[in-house]
Amino acid sequence: xxxxxxxxxxxxxxxxxxxxxxxxxxxxxWALPLLAVLLLGGIAFFFWYGLRxxxxxxxxxxxxxxAMARASQDAQVREALGQPIQAEPLSLxxxxxxxxxxxxxxxxxxxxxxxxxxxxxxxxxxxxEWRFDKLTFRPLGRHDEVDLxxxxxxxxxLMGHCP
Length: 163
Fold this sequence. Notes:
alpha+beta, elongated
């Protein structure tokens, strides 16, 4: 028996170990779920980011600011919600303006230390002034509404038009 200077091959090494797999195939059990989570997370992030960008433009509009100011100044709203009154994220609405005229529709969820409620409004603008055709506050869980329009806006709504 002669001693060979070359040691025997390691198990799985060389040509006898079957087909070789790349790193992805070797780690398939955790790589596929990780890719799925990353893909869904990316889609959710871009959806959220788009909503946030749209919402921030809406929240900086004049009708939105006027509605929030009226709610904060109204005694019945302050009584129902407490102070400070804040808007909750992702308010709904649209504001369209063209050649000095405009139309706005808004639904704003608001909250305070004592509760939550919803502002619903429809506004129009002729020349430089926004006027609410409808602006109501309803506390959540109740059916009574508080009309937040000025007396001039109420008269205009009854007449059907304003000068």
